[in-house]
């Protein structure tokens, strides 16, 4: 506990960066993922191919490689800090999984819903937005919840590119204090502080939506 | 019980259980640490007939993994081999040397857990570290320096004292704290290992990489566009480390080190590894008898 007293500003700073990176990546991957899911089920061939290629690439490459590539190779052309490279990497990686979850959600919705909506004069976009997607999200919610919890934990990838997050600060504290064990327990608790409320909130949403349905 | 009460009870029980598990593990680790403290390293290695050395696998000239043979090579490795031979002679127990690659951040923990017996891994002796491990006499004189691109216009650590500059260091090394001391305004970013730090320097994520001169020379030989500037701004001799309270092992190793310095083997190894470094007068590293 003296460790926490001594280094708490460091931990809090790391906690802040982890929270920020997780939030940006969460919102970004939700938007990107939904976009690519729609592309994958669209009737246009180029969109389907593009969406498929994107998802397969980012789903099948380790997050560390994506992040290091952004930080060490792409940064030569476009200037970015470790925090940015890590967050963008996290967002791209998670969006591929989000796309798969949302796509599965869309496919689970009976085709008749889309046909009915189109028959009533809605455009494809309108039908997607008002009829199919809300139902698809309800189906995809549990698996989306998993992706987001993974996202928070995966944000420790920032440590590898000097992203100043919890894991990075933890490594620094462990290296200066030599109290590796206590440091990582504290780090673990900090992650729980983010992930537990998140998973409870998703459970709550699930129950709430079920009641509404 | 009603439903809400039941659920509340469930939550509390889960929390209590989780806490009990965490505390249990902590207690077990503490007990294990206390028990291992009484284990004598010298007795252990004599019994096993082998000294397990923690060495670097990413540091050119000191400990670098040879991808063809899958064994590390370098000054540290050769020193460890020579020391093992010498300790065998002193104790009369035949021993072989084996090597485990360690990272700067993990080596002390591995030592505490007795995964390795000793570590000879470009480790700077600091008073803070000396509280947790036992050091031998220094076996190599090193000091912190800067590696920059040749046309960068940076000439010393003082030039870096500006918020527009970023210095790249490695997690777990003394370089992070020392850089902040000498250039408090510069940003310091710590990466996981030297290879990624060098890549980050090339990618322009920082303007300089800072660590011991000896390690930087290894990178300078590989990357002709980069050079060392400003000489050394700290004194940080390297020591061989053992777990705390391992006097017999430390004494044996110090004796072995003295012998190697006297019989010329130390100077042979210096010549073998440092005579080809451009810009380094390797004779300065030799021990004068």
Q: Which tags fit this structure?
A:
heterodimer, A: 213 residues, mainly alpha, 84% helix, flat, B: 289 residues, alpha/beta, five-stranded mixed β-sheet, 10 helices, 13 strands
- Strand ordering within the main sheet of chain B: 5-1-6-13-7
Query: How much β-strand is present in the residues of chain A?
Result: under 5%
Radius of gyration of chain B: 23 Å
**Multimer state:** heterodimer
Question: How far apart are the first and last residues' alpha carbons of chain B, in Å?
Answer: 85 Å
Calculate the mean pLDDT score of chain A and round it: 91
Description:
The complex is a heterodimer of chains A (213) and B (289). Chain A has eight helices and no strands. Chain A has 213 residues and is mostly helical. In chain A, helix 1 (2-41) packs antiparallel against helix 6, helix 4 (82-108) packs across helix 6 and helix 6 (124-154) packs antiparallel against helix 8 (180-212). Chain B is of the alpha/beta class and 289 residues long. In chain B, strand 3 (63-66) and strand 4 (71-73) form a beta hairpin. In chain B, helix 3 (75-91) crosses helix 9 (247-262) and helix 3 (75-91) runs antiparallel to helix 10 (265-274). The longest helix of chain B is centred in the first third of the chain and has 35 residues, at 3-37. The model of chain B has no long low-confidence stretch (mean pLDDT 87).
Concise structural overview:
The complex is a heterodimer of chains A (about 210) and B (about 290). Chain A has about 210 residues and is mainly α.
Question: What does the secondary structure layout of this molecule look like, with pairings?
Answer:
The complex is a heterodimer of chains A (213) and B (289).
Chain A: H1 2-41, H2 45-60, H3 63-72, H4 82-108, H5 111-119, H6 124-154, H7 166-177, H8 180-212
Helix pairs in contact in A: 1-2, 1-4, 1-6, 1-7, 1-8, 2-4, 3-4, 4-6, 5-6, 6-8, 7-8
Chain B: H1 3-37, H2 41-48, E1 50-55, E2 58-59, E3 63-66, E4 71-73, H3 75-91, E5 96-101, H4 107-112, E6 118-119, H5 127-130, E7 133-140, E8 144-149, E9 166-170, H6 175-182, E10 187-191, H7 194-202, E11 208-212, H8 213-222, E12 226-229, E13 238-243, H9 247-262, H10 265-274
Parallel strand pairs in B: 1-5, 1-6, 9-10, 9-11
Antiparallel strand pairs in B: 2-3, 3-4, 6-13, 7-13, 8-11, 8-12
Helix pairs in contact in B: 3-9, 3-10
